[in-house]
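During the no-cost extension, the postdoctoral fellow (Dr. R.K.) reprocessed legacy sequence entries with the updated structure-token encoder. One reprocessed record is reproduced below for audit purposes.
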Amino acid sequence: MQRFLMWPFNQLDPSNYILVLYLLISAVALSIASYFIARFIILRLAVKLLFHSGRNNAKKYSAREIRIIKRLSKLAPILVFFTLSKSEPVLGEIATSAIQAICGILFVVNIAIVVNDLLDAMNEQYFLNRHRSIKGYIQLAKLVVAGIAIILIIATLSNKSPIIILSSLGAAAAILMLVFQHTLISLVANVQVSSSNVIQIDDWIEIPQLNISGEVIDIALHTITIRNWDNTISRVPTKNFITESYTNWQPMLSSGGRRIKRSFFVDQSSVAFASRKLLLDCERLLPLSPSLRAELDELIHTEEFSQIIRQGITNLSLFRKHIVAYLQSRSDINQVMYLVVRQLPPTANGLPVEIYCFTKSTNWVEYEEVQSSIFEYVLAVSNYFNLTIFQNPSGKDISALSYGPIRAKHVEQ
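Re-encoded structure tokens follow.
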């Protein structure tokens, strides 16, 4: 063990041991001095001039800046050792080569770490300015930095040119592609997702086949992290957003309107031509738009009721027109976007009537409140038009059939 530790110096003349020890102590002292000079004077002054000019908090440093300063300060002792090893031939060729190799490796590792910190700072600054994540590109750049660092370390240990190391990797390209196939696929997917701007941080993403619905909190090279609305975390491979279908609700949130598209069923047997009593009740009891009120006045004062039949005026048509007028009068409905109340093809459950409109608020809670209030009004006002909202018989309806007419009438009273 002792022979191994003394290997770089086992070719020295014993008379030079004292000189080597003196040189070693001097190198350590100079390294410590250079470290503190670089850290507390040169680098701090440079950071203050470059990044803190014009700030009120110019004396404060961020955690990342302090980490970069510490890492760069460690380069000074490495350079001191490297310079002294070249200027002192008394160490011998083997010892000099060993010290230079160690210094070269430490230099490359520290530079790689500093570059990675700078890349992280670039990602944070870009996200703050444009609210877009380039984490995938940053991770790719880190892989490139790591690859270059490994090649330089191998070149330093083997004492060969990095170009020779790169040329020897050409034969292993197929193996490297096989090993990093998932990384390459993720890289292509990340570039497509980022360049097309289809997914950003804070977007609402829904993937029904994976039971995922939530907010994007991170876009990395290999995965996209989503916080679901139940506060669980899902990580989806980036390539899935190229090969599989998903829904991005963010354009809806930024469009200024959220769609209401819901139907209710009308009992078809309750649809009939409008009677004069119905017209009078609607005019007297319901808030009507000026155009609908004028139409009702004209129908009420017509002498022949057959004219209503010829015009096809039914309680359902009046009901639809009233719902349209009601939606147009609401301040929380976006009047610029589509607003339709229409019939759908009849079904076994009745005649579907669909309300299609957009709310002004895209907030989920406010949207649900507006939608609920609309359909509560629809269900209540349908009685004024002598329309029956269809629903399947309940247990109470079936049990009422077991009573005779007198018993049923007594129960109703």
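Confidence is low (pLDDT under 50) at residues 1-7, 54-58, 406-413. The beta strands are 204-207, 212-219, 223-228, 233-237, 247-248, 258-266, 340-343, 351-359. The remaining legacy entries will be reprocessed before the final report is submitted.
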